[in-house]
Amino acid sequence: MADPLLKLVEQYLDHLRYERNASVHTVRNYSRDLAEFCGYFARTDARGRTYHPELTQFDALSIREFLGFLYGHGLAKQTISRKISALRSFFRFLLKLQLLSVNPAAAVSLPRLPKRNPGCLEVAQVEALLEAPDGDTRAGVRDRALLELLYATGVRVSELVGLNLDDLGLTERLLRVRGKGKKERQVPFGEKAGEALARWLQLRPLVQAGRARGTGATRALFLNLRGGRLSDRSVRRSLDGYVHHVAAHLRVSPHTLRHSFATHLLNAGADLRVIQELLGHASLSTTQKYTHLSIEQLINVYKKSHPHA
Fold it and tell me: Of 17, 88, 138, 180, which residue is the catalytic one?
């Protein structure tokens, strides 16, 4: 019989999937984090049976003990912060179920993280990256289309792989995107992305024809070469290969293209609230982190415009 604590963890993960509409990436990470937490406090008897503490046995001291264990293993502050956030969210869920009267992780401070500027590529670097896929192969045509779309729209990689054929308006050059919390937004894309997508759509039926049984990917815009829906991990792996081909010293992720999209728009004079809408940010403060990247642009404009500059 499954341990009650592990059953509650599974119930919480289902809550993330089906009620909070959390991304696959978030659910995967939180699942690992909570499994590590449960494993740390698990005890095995002489017969080899494993037991976990009762919920009421967890308090701020036990959470701090687990925090010390994480620090002792030399984990990065970002990783530790995520693990404690997972615990806070899990216990908050148990509070709503009235299984606890207090959140034992609420009083534990998160590690102080250094402020990191979002990575951004120069326009020439983006152009080189977009040219990297081999246009004579199915994978290359597909990858050129998805890279063009990532840069043209600033969508998250989880949003990209979740796109279906009916989300694409090729004639209008509009994309229907389902963001966090399944909130929908319309995002335009340019001519180059449209051309790359048109080429991929010509080849897509050939890829789909080889679809493995049970893949269920008939509606997916982007397919792997077995005909299944492309995964976010596959996108990241492909991008790593192109980055190595173009410039091995660059540290680029799909999110870097999202940051570059926002920064290049801002540098060209786009309104911050327009960028907020395109990125699908709930708060303008989230979008404002891009403004510091344009300080050189602001200085140049100031010098050209101010009478006493």
Answer: 180
